[in-house]
Design a protein that fits this description.
3 helices
């Protein structure tokens, strides 16, 4: 009875295929790299709060850019192979 209603039935369709984790690693890595690069290149014109920094910390931003690029390359390599 339940199988007739589709309850408990196995579905073969997975969102973005079997490579969902690789797509997520690619997206998060690229977003991390681009976001931190833009924070260094173009800091906010004005501070919204009194405790906001005028510019992103360069050392931390560079580390996040490198980690983001590594994650994006890893995700892309997983998708290609």
């Amino acid at each position: 009875m339940l199988s007739e209603l589709g309850v408990g039935a196995h579905h073969d369709h997975v969102f973005l295929g079997e490579d969902l984790l690789a797509w997520l690693v690619l997206a998060v890595g690229a977003a991390m790299a681009v976001g931190n690069a833009l924070a260094l290149i173009r800091p906010p014109e004005r501070r919204r709060h009194d405790d906001d920094l005028t510019q992103a910390p360069v050392g931390r931003a560079v580390v996040y850019i490198v980690l983001g690029v590594i994650a994006a390359i890893w995700g892309l390599a997983t998708l290609v192979t």
